[in-house]
Amino acid sequence: MEIKSLMLFRQGLLVLALMGISSATLSPTGINYEVVALTAIKFNLHDPYNVLENWDSNSVDPCSWRMVTCTPDGYVSALGLPSQSLSGTLSPSIGNLSYLQSVLLQNNAISGPIPATIGKLEKLETLDLSNNTFSGEIPTSLGDLKNLNYLRLNNNSLTGACPDSLSNIGGLTLVDLSYNNLSGSLPKISARTFKVIGNPLICGPKAGNNCSAVFPEPLSLPPDGLKAQPDSGSKGHRVAVAFGASFGAAFFIILFIGLLVWWRYRFNQQIFFDVNEQYDPEVCLGHLKRYAFRELRAATDHFNSKNILGRGGFGIVYKGCLNDGTLVAVKRLKDYNIAGGEIQFQTEVATISLAVHRNLLRLSGFCTTENERLLVYPYMPNGSVAFRLRDHIHGRPALDWTRRKRIALGTARGLVYLHEQCDPKIIHRDVKAANILLDEDFEAVVGDFGLAKLLDHRDSHVTTAVRGTVGHIAPEYLSTGQSSEKTDVFGFGILLLELITGKEAASGR
């Protein structure tokens, strides 16, 4: 009894030491500041259609997020959220996205002041906040945007004077401040096109300013020129009517086509096509079964939200039942055609095809359509370790100590196989409780190979952009971008802490 107590005491000291090391290395400086900024922007916006659904604060890489574009180095370079019915306010945290080159938030209902912190975005070339309900004055800090080419703030409720600092920007092509409530005199802005029409306190009859303020000015005929041909009035009227009718017809045709394109874009995820005899030379499909999209759609009851098993940065996993009664898990990649989506699909297929082990999730099949990529796995009836750790049966934890030990050993066997028995070896890069699944016998199965990297046995590491989940990432990987087997070992250590404590690695509690 004394020996057993001594062993438990030593284990407790070890856990406390590891927890101390973990909390010391995973300091706030290790968190991606761009993730923090984007999640703050999401928090301040009301998103009725969930277009920002995959903006996950636990992620360390926003490049896979919808409406976000990154540079080849992995920095956020563009934020494009036009016409998404967003409301709320624009967070000042946008000023922390220092690599932004384009901000497109037009045609929403965003209100409040324009954050002065936008002036910190030295690389910004395009800023379009038009057709919202922004109020207050135009920040003078916008004059610090030396690389700005296009500035559109029209159709808002902005007040005050147009800041003189805008005259400091030498490369402006377009400045549109029309249809606001601006007042005062206008600075000498060097933009080729400068619009302030629709501002009564600037464009009033006594203002003395050029109301359209468009340079170069549009060609206009003097009134005397109209009086020189009195007999041409009737003919001119007929020409005007004909021109108006033609223009109106063309306008409605263009409007119809535009609405059709917008509708297809807006509901892109609900439009699918089965493509016959598809071939992708990038993916080695081997023995995998190709499923028809209609078969998987029927199996998941049209991807019913009631069948959702889990969500990740790249997609949603649904429970499905095939025609023969087989239960499967269908991973539907979201926005596969944006940056990283198709690569993630190819990585997962190719990696799982290489690795076959009882403690690794095997891929049963796949489905590709013009707009969809789906992966089919065996259904794991006991869910994930993350779920079971917080599950209780009759007031007792669902995972007793015997099962937790078995899970730790099974996960270790799977990782050893990836690191030592695969050629090339495979670095998982996202080892965590949510990615360890449990079969009907509570055997651990390592899953989700979307971030995996292949590594030659002669190499010590591979350098990549940082990927993974906050709380599970090795500190040297965060600081250098170099991942190796040690990256997975660190994640496995955090998993052991979760198994022992029953708590999340980064829950905020």
TrEMBL record:
Reported EC number(s) for this entry are: 2.7.11.1
Gene encoding it?
LOC111288035
Domain Protein kinase: from-to ranges:
303-509
- Recorded superkingdom: Eukaryota
State the family it belongs to.
Belongs to the protein kinase superfamily. Ser/Thr protein kinase family.
Range of residues in the leader sequence:
1-24
Query: What keywords are assigned to this protein?
Result: ATP-binding, Kinase, Leucine-rich repeat, Membrane, Nucleotide-binding, Repeat, Serine/threonine-protein kinase, Signal, Transferase, Transmembrane, Transmembrane helix
Places the protein is found: Membrane
Q: Would you tell me the protein name for this molecule? A: non-specific serine/threonine protein kinase
Please classify the protein's predominant subcellular localization into one broad category: membrane
Q: Which reaction does it catalyse?
A: L-seryl-[protein] + ATP = O-phospho-L-seryl-[protein] + ADP + H(+); L-threonyl-[protein] + ATP = O-phospho-L-threonyl-[protein] + ADP + H(+)
Keyword Transit peptide in annotation: no
A GO molecular function term, named singly, is: protein serine/threonine kinase activity
Transmembrane stretches, start-end: 239-263
